[in-house]
Amino acid sequence: MAARTKARKRALDLLFEAEARGVNVGDLLHERLAAPVTDAPLNPYTATLVEGVIAHWRDINELLNTYSQGWPVERMPAVDRAILRLGAFEVLYSEDVAEAVAISEAVGLATQLSTDDSPKFVNGLLGRLAQVKPTLA
């Protein structure tokens, strides 16, 4: 597994864990950076991803709600929310990741970790965000 793929998975784990535990994801990130719970410390790209999602949290949620067609963020499975937030950050705000790569990685996470319908949903929603990205100011 490539380093960035692992970093995305770790970022997803942090986003999901924070929501499941009802804790602030930024605080959880700082806690894990200071005292890793695994043998390997967090990849710097994991921190970049989580910090990016945090920095754009409101905009990402608003866009996901706008373009998800009948599926408000709060009704989505928690793992899908985390995957979509992560993917939306990379699609919309990351300058060093191609949109197609970000979408493919998010679909891969959904395939591994979520329902049978999730990969299609993630692909469609992130693809739509990539389409409308030029119109967002």
From TrEMBL:
Q: Where is the NusB/RsmB/TIM44 domain?
A: 6-130
For this protein, the record's Gene3D superfamilies field holds: NusB-like (1.10.940.10)
Keyword terms of this UniProt record = RNA-binding, Transcription, Transcription antitermination, Transcription regulation
SUPFAM superfamilies for this protein = NusB-like
The UniProt entry, under Pfam families, shows: NusB (PF01029)
Keyword RNA-binding found: yes
Give the UniProt family note: Belongs to the NusB family.
State the NCBIfam families in the record.
nusB (TIGR01951)
What's the stated role of this polypeptide?
Answer: Involved in transcription antitermination. Required for transcription of ribosomal RNA (rRNA) genes. Binds specifically to the boxA antiterminator sequence of the ribosomal RNA (rrn) operons.
* Name of the featured protein: Transcription antitermination protein NusB
Name of encoding gene: nusB
